[in-house]
Structures are given as structure tokens and as C-alpha cells.
Amino acid sequence: MFADLPLLSLVVWLPIFGGVAVLLSGDKGDANGVRVLSLVISIATFVLSLGLYTGFDSSTAAMQFVEKTAWIPAFDINYHFGVDGFSMPLIILTTFTTILVVIAGWEVIKKRPSQYLAAFLIMEGLMVAVFAALDAVFFYIFWEAMLVPMFILIGVWGGERRVYATIKFFIYTFIGSVFMLVALIYMYFKGGSFAILDMHMLKLTMNEQLLIFFAFLAAFAVKVPMWPVHTWLPDAHVEAPTGGSVILAAIMLKIGGYGFIRFSLPITPDAAHALDWLIILMSLVAVVYIGFVALVQKDMKKLVAYSSIAHMGFVTLGLFVVFQIWENPANASSSGAALAVEGAMIQMISHGFISGAMFLMIGVLYDRMHTREISAYGGVVHSMPIFAAFAVFFAMSNAGLPGTSGFVGEFMVILASFQANFWYAFLAALTLILGAAYTLWMVKRVFYGAIANENVRALQDINSRELTIMTVLAVAVLVLGLWPAPVIEVMHTSVESLLQHMSVSKL
Amino acid sequence: MTFESLNIAIALPEVFLLTMACLVLVVDVFLPQTKRNFTYVLTQLTLIITFALVLSNQTDARVLAFNDLFVQDAMADVLKLFILMVSFGVFVYSREYLIARDIFKGEFYVLGLFSILGMMLMVSANNLLMLYLGLELLSLCLYALVAFSDSRQRQGSGNASEAAMKYFVLGAIASGMLLYGMSILYGLSGSLALSDIALAVMESSKADNAQHIGMIFGLVFIVVALAFKLGAVPFHMWVPDVYHGSPTAVTALIATAPKLAGFAMLMRLMVEALGGLQADWQQMIIVISILSMAVGNIFAIAQTNIKRMLAYSTISHVGFILLGILAGTSAGYSSAMFYTISYAFMSLGGFGIIMLLARQGFEADNISDLTGLNQRSPWFAFIMMILMLSMAGVPPTVGFWAKLAVLSAVVDIDMVWMAIVAVFFSIIGIFYYLRIIKVMYFDEAVDTQPLECGRDMQIALSTNGLAILALGLYPAALMSLCVSVFN
Hints:
The complex is a heterodimer of chains A (507) and B (487).
Chain A: H1 7-25, H2 31-54, E1 64-72, E2 77-83, H3 87-104, H4 113-132, H5 136-145, H6 147-157, H7 162-191, H8 196-201, H9 206-223, H10 232-239, H11 242-267, H12 269-274, H13 276-295, H14 300-320, H15 322-327, H16 336-369, H17 380-383, H18 385-398, H19 405-420, H20 422-447, H21 454-457, H22 464-482, H23 485-503
Antiparallel strand pairs in A: 1-2
Chain B: H1 12-29, H2 37-57, E1 63-65, E2 70-72, H3 74-100, H4 106-123, H5 128-147, H6 159-189, H7 194-206, H8 211-230, H9 238-245, H10 248-255, H11 257-273, H12 278-301, H13 306-327, H14 330-357, H15 373-376, H16 378-392, H17 398-412, H18 416-441, H19 455-473, H20 476-485
Antiparallel strand pairs in B: 1-2
Helix pairs in contact in B: 1-2, 1-4, 2-3, 2-4, 3-4, 3-10, 3-11, 3-14, 4-5, 4-11, 5-6, 6-7, 6-8, 6-9, 7-11, 8-11, 8-12, 9-10, 9-13, 10-14, 11-14, 12-13, 12-18, 13-14, 13-17, 13-18, 14-16, 14-17, 14-19, 14-20, 16-18, 16-19, 17-18, 17-19
């Protein structure tokens, strides 16, 4: 149905131009106008992006829906879009989450709603473009540009310490990415092309690979974020408005993981192999240590932010444990490597849903009580029974309960890690205990027990708008948890192709 | 020498500009203050016609005139067009500012026109003498312009006089350095023509003769003088004071078009005349460039006055421009040119916003004066945000491409470390640009009155801001223009 359309360009530019239109319509009149307009644009974008799924051919690892036009001939930079099994699910996740975010801010955002909604729409287009870009400079442009709307979102609609948080967010990410830019320019002169797929083929010496690997690591580790460069995330999350937190957790962190898949692993396989112990170490620290840190948080948002870091540890673990699976002679013929990478991908998508849901839940409470302190709550179940049911469900999936999507990715990664080293799997599996501990303990303190104070007693249960969001997310979490096969199938060929690239030395 | 050999038609735009500048000078004397607008219109008309003349005069070939004193080539044409465009913008932005300050005088326009003439002569110089004359014409006009508000505006407490004095004294020292360096080159080569000097330099570096050392001796003085004029560290002391002390209209003039002329001077002297000494000047420029990026970006953080902040930001941008030059390749020169042109437009817009904010008897040059601009005038806040992001080099603005171009030029000559140093300092730089955005967007406005200005200013500022964005989305045209100049 969409065969003749430049689908990726549409999915990128529709929300961007739509966002500009929302921005121009201004805040003078009735705010409902811009809200409806934003909702229509975000739904239209989502519907268009579904065309990527229906038209996707999962039997090939080649890029699909490719659009390529010369953009800056002087540097051989092209307007070059295309998707494979890695980027396509993440694009749909992006367009899906944006709808929820637009709905979530419906009547909550009273201050300049047109600018708020426009920032999300523009950011949506930029994030889709990051996933779809196949030219390194093109990628970099969207990668950087996407910071600006988020910077403004946190800074304008954020909490008390928003200025500190947003500047920290921007500078951290910027520091990481400029070194990547130098690496990209270097490879351009080395190989004569900015096309990412050409860089996959580029021969590099070990020294070059190590330097380029670290340049990429600086960019992607900050974005994921990996311990020890994670400190911007709790600050940004705590200060960001609900919608900003959702996008940050659900999509922006994924861009870091996606960067490893698209750049680090295929471009510098030998350096990645040589340094896989470092990444695995950082991932395990994130899973275990950050899990403990989450346990002691007093602020709900901070707790979920730390749990995000711990969950993203599984993504990096899954991606880098591959080399050690191969090294272990016991499983020469097994498919453990594919399991690890697919587990990482599923974990990213699932975390998109679950962390989005967790932040939306905190948003629901915050809109009513204007505090995120766990100690300010207690016994919420008495006044908000429906909401409490959803909360328990999402908390369970955050803790990795089988049957929810949170279980699938973590289980796959743990299973694959067993083939590399028992202790990796053991440490990673600790998350099942830790995750349950910090999430369920938070739920217990917030939702159960005696009613803490009069404010809690006066709480209204969720309205139909909030109910819709929660239901949609709950269905998504359940479907992905019970039947992940379609998603795995979509990415399988691309995973094989990535593993192929990783297994061939470039030296 | 026959009249034909003067080839006077080549210099038609300059001749026209000179005639018109004299005409404006005379006409203005007979105008009452109420009719001062006529001077303004006449000045702008002059710039437009000169622009058209340059455009119609364009040639691909390299043509000499005035006994080889004057050259017209692709670089000269392009730079002149942009100098005229940027100056036009400065005059548009400054009109209301000058009226509000009671300094809407003919002198501003006459001196402005003469300084533009000086820039055009620098751009087209093919001889040390010509270069020096152009530079002095430019500088003397600017010295006078910096000072010209103080006699009427007492509450300025002599800031402008101090700035003018500083500018003049340091500028004179730099001119002296330049002259000394030039005299050494003249003594060694026996000629003032750039091409003859280039030949002599080649000759001197071939054999291991003593002349080579002499050439380098001259080179040092020339590099120092150029660094002075461009405001590169460690010869940058005058920049913040002059930017701060001058009326903003004059600061805008100093900060924009003369950078283009300065780039031309660099190209004419360092590349055309002393290209043979590239290995020697490269080392000096590396040091100057790194220092400029470091000092510019670090000192800018501490500023509370936005004009001073932009002054330090200029210093850091000069460091980036030098980065392209020191690559010593045609890709490097074109990237430096691209950078200079984009910088001129960014800084034009930045000072435009400052002039917009200024009101009767109130100079809005503190960063805090931008507080809550998004509430007052969201559109201008948006433009200022684009300008700041562009200066910081964040895509999708033209500033990103400028940085990308110079970085790739140095990576191309295997100086990856230099690129890493440059991005490191640009990270530091991002902080103070973000602070402007923070003040405009995150802080609550004290004064919620929207900014008011004429239609001409609105259109010009919007075009300026959108051009920065449009060039960021589609930089290919400007980029290939810059590349074609050096092919």
C-alpha cells in the first residue's frame, strides 16, 4: 500500500513540519486546538510508520525503504535513509510513544502548550531520523539536533532544579558526541565515504580501531547511559516533565544501544572484541550496583531512573557478551550469540514500554499530589483502586515477571551469558531479585498500608484519558511478553548479518 | 603607462562606492536632522548598486588593474558580495538604534561607507601598498566610529572614548608591526607586488641561503600584525573592550564585515605572497589558533555583558578560522572562508538582537536583559536561539557545517589531535551559548512588554535567522561556492 511513497521521509518530516505548524499556531486561542492538532499529527505519523512494518521483508538484512539523494556533494554527504531489522522496531516504538506523550500532557501542561507539544513532535521526527539515517554525518546532525528540544523541554517545563539538570544533560551528551564526529571525519578520509554501510567494510588497524571505539563509546555510553557516566540521567529524569521523562527513558536511551549496534560493533569489531571485558564489567556494575542504588531512593522518579540504568545494562551486556560466547569452545555450534543480541533488542523495546509506563504512573500521582517523595504516599490503593492495579502490573513487569515483556529480554540475555561465563549470568540474574526488591518495595510503600494523609484520601482515580494510556501500554507489555516471536523474526536476519560483521576481523 | 593599462573598469564598484561616499558626505551637510533618513536611504542604495556592479563584473579569470596593484579574482568577488550584504544588514539593524540614541548622524554612514571601501580594497589588493592602504582606510574609519557617540552621550562615562583610544593605540602598533614586516619583505625581494614576493620566497627556500632567515623574520612581524587585526590570542586584549565600549551599531560593524576582509588579508599575505613559508607559519598559527580557542571559550564563560561575551566568542571563532588556514590545502582555505562567511552572518544577527533589545537611553547589553525573551517575543527568542546554537556548532545550523569543514580540513592533513583539541574547546564553548538560551527560555520575564521595532528590522532579522537555519539544512550551495573559489 505504501510502496510508492518515500515512507521514511514522511515519517521524519511529517512530525517536524507538523510541530512547526503547532508552534506557529501559538497559544493565543484555545489550547484544545493545538492539542488535537498534535494528536492528529502523532497518530498519522504512527500509522505511516506501521507501513514500515507491513512492507518489511524480514528475509533480508539489506536496508529497505532506501532513499538516497546527493545532499552536499562537496563532502559526498547524502540524504540517505533506510531501515533494517534493528531500526524498524525502534522507529515504531518512537512513533507509538509520542502519541502517549501527547495524550499524557493533555490538560496537565498549562504553560505554553503549543511550544510543549511542538517540541515533542519535532523531537519525534529527529529521533526517527536518527534511527533511519544511513549517512554518518546525516546521522550526527539528527543525533545532535535532537538534544535541543529535550534541552528546552526540561528547562522550561521541568522541576525546581531544571536548569542544572538540563545543562548537565546537554553538556554530557555533547561531550560524548563531538569525539564521535572526529572519528567519523577520520573514517571519511580513510575510506572516502560517509555512508555507514561503507564504514562497516572499512579496513582499520588495531590502533585506529581502539581510538575510534573509544570515540564511539564516549558518545553511546553517555546516551545509554552506562555506569560511570550515568549521573546526568537521574537529574534529568527527576526534573523533566512527565512526557520528557517518558521520551528520555523510552527512546533516547535506546539510541545509545542502537549506536553500539550500528557503529561500534560492525565498524570496530576487533577493538570491541579486545575490550569486551570492559563493557561487560561496566554493564554488570550497572545491573548490580545501580540496582542497590535504586533500592535506597526516596524519590520515585529517581528510583525508576536508576532502574532504567540497570535495565539498560542488559542491553550492553547482551551486545558484548557475544565475543565470549564464541570464544567458549563448548558452544561452537550454538546460537547463543544471536540469542544475546536479540535479547538486547527485545530488552530495549520492552524497556521502552515499561519505563514509559512507570514514568507515566509517577506522572499521574505527581499531577495530583505535586510530590514524588515515596514517604508522602501510602495506601493509595484505597482511593485509586484501578490505578493501583495497573501500578502493580507495571511494577511486576519492571521486576521481570514471566509473561510480561520485561522477562523475555532479560531471560534471553541471561541464558546467552551462561554460554560465556557462569558468573556473568549469575550476576546478571541478581537483577531478578534486586529489581523485584526495589520496585515492589516502592509499590508497597506507595500503594499499600494505611492511608498516609488526607491528601491521599482525597485522591481521584484515573480518568478515561489516563486509563487509555495505561491500557494501551499494558496490552503492549503483555503481547510482547507472551508472544515476542514476530519482533524477533523481524530482526533475525539483521542480527545474523551483524554477527557476521562482528566475527570477521578487520585487521 | 597608458590609460588602458589602468584597466579602470575592473575597479568600477570601488570607484562608484568612493564617488557615492563623497556624495553622501556633501549631501548630508545640507540636510536638516529631520531629513536624515535621506542619508540612510542613499547609503543603502549605494550598497545595493555596488553589489549589483560587483555581481555584473564577476569573472572567472584573474584580472589585474592599476598597474597590477589591484586584482579581481573569484575570491575577491565572493568576499566583496558578502561584505556588502553584511554591511547592508548592519545599517538596517542600526537605524532605529541610532535614532533612539540621538546619534542618527551622517558621519556614521560616511565613515561606514569609507570603511567598506577600505575592506573592498583589502580584498582586491595585489600589492603590499594596496593592502596597507585598504587596511588603514578601514581602521581609521572604525577608530572614529567607535568614539563618535561619546560627545553626545554623557552617561556613557567615556566608555567609548576609552575603547576608541585603546583600539587606536593597539591598532597603530599592529600597523607598525605590519609595516616593519612588509619593509623586510621588500628589502629581501625588492618588490611590493605579492607575486614577486612569492617568487623571492620560493627562491630563498630553494638554496640554503641567508635570505630564508630574513624572510622568516619578516613573516613573524606579519603574523603578529595579522593576529592583532583579527583579534587572535595573545594579541586579543583590545577586542572585549572595544566591543563593549562602542555603540552596538559600531560593534556590529566591527564584528562582521571586517572579518571577511581580514580573511582576505590572511589569504593574500600568507598564502599568495608567503605560501612558500607555509611550513614556518603553520607552526605559529597552530599556537595562535589553539590559544584563541582556549582563551576565547574559557573567558567567555565569566562574562555578564553579552557584548563582551560575543567578543570572546569572536576570539574563539577566529581560532577556528585559523584552523582552516593552517591546513594549507585548498580544502582548508575554502573551509576557512565558509566559516568566516557564516560567522559574519551569525554575529550580524547576534548584534541585531542586542540592538533590538536596546531602548531609549538604555543599553541592553547585559545577559540578564535577555531574561524571559521567549515570553516577550517568542519569535525573536527563537531567532536568537538559532544564532546561539549556530555559534556553538549544533546542527542543523550553518555553524555546524563550518566547524565540520574546518575539522575535516585538519583531519585531512593528519592532524587529528588538532581536531580533538578544537572539539574539546567547543565543548567548553557550548556552555555560555546555552546560558543565553537558558536566560531567554527558562527564566521568568521581569518585563513582559513585547519588543517593538520597525517592519524593516523584523524582516531583516527574520531573514538573517532563517538563513542560518536554511544554510544549515542545505549548505551545499555556499559550500560549493567556497570550494570553487580555491580550485
